[in-house]
Amino acid sequence: MVAIDINCDMGESFGNYTMGRDEEVMPYITSANVAGGFHAGDPHVMRETVALAESHGVGVGIHPGLPDMMGFGRRKMDATPEEVRDYVVYQLGALAGFAEWMGVTVQHVKPHGAMYSMLSESDDHARAVIEAVLEVDPDLIYLATDTNIYETAREYDDLDAVFEGYVDLEYRPDRTLIVERTKAAPDPELVADRAVSIARHGEVEAADGTTIEVPAESICIHGDTPNAVEILETIHARFEDEAIELTRLDELVR
């Protein structure tokens, strides 16, 4: 049977500001990327998100970002490899504290926004983060958001790396994503088609109609997409029809 993980960025609310639809989305995913408090999130939201994930049997991972809450971690920052490494370890430690309190194991690391772009563009930054993750907990899974990071992560024999694909966004032929400033509501059936294609064949149709390889074991759904719940319901129905099993990351790689 074919198996795949569905992940979603969660816990990005903070203070009086609500981001995403965590309670509605959580029942449909298998892994949650929890904001670490730098680009979004706060201690109370982190605790609530870990508890919500635990109640649904969803795997928990850290979604570390650059310290730029006003820019939602999407703006470039001049930071050394050591500084970025420390940002990741700091946020991982915060999540690990709440997880230990609740008897939950942190399963993965997925960098956010401008941080993952930095890691993709700089081998020194990517290796500093990967090596720190291994030293903190060699059992952590690295969820790689692009080919450059994935190939670097695979060089480390002790690291489980999983490649991530996107289905509620379109790809360019070079496998970069088309990210619009305003989130539209994509056709749930089209998104489900992409999810099935990635799960079964490791490929998806790009925006220009060409077929590109996306050998992903996990697909990301954005919780702030206007019709995210409808999309997830449609994917679940199609996966059931296609005998595709949903499996969280820590069960997928071991």
Description of the structure:
- This protein has 254 residues and is an alpha/beta fold.
- The chain has one domain (2-252): Alpha-Beta Barrel (TIM Barrel).
- It contains nine helices and twelve strands.
- A seven-stranded parallel barrel has the order 1-2-3-4-5-6-11, surrounded by four helices.
- α2 crosses α3 (81-101) and α3 (81-101) runs parallel beside α5.
- The longest helix is centred in the middle third of the chain and has 21 residues, at 81-101.
- It starts with a strand and ends with a helix.
- The mean pLDDT is 96.
Q: What portion of residues belong to β-strands?
A: 15-25%
Provide the spatial order of strands within the biggest beta sheet: 1-2-3-4-5-6-11
> Could you tell me the radius of gyration in angstroms?
17 Å
Question: What is the CATH third-level topology name?
Answer: TIM Barrel
**What is the string of helix and strand elements?**
EHEHEHEHHEHEEEHEEEHEH
Mean pLDDT, rounded to whole units? 96
**Straight-line N-to-C gap:** 16 Å
Shape: globular
Instruction: Supply the CATH class.
Output: Alpha Beta
Report the sheet with the most strands, covering strand number, pairing sense and barrel closure: 7 strands, parallel, barrel
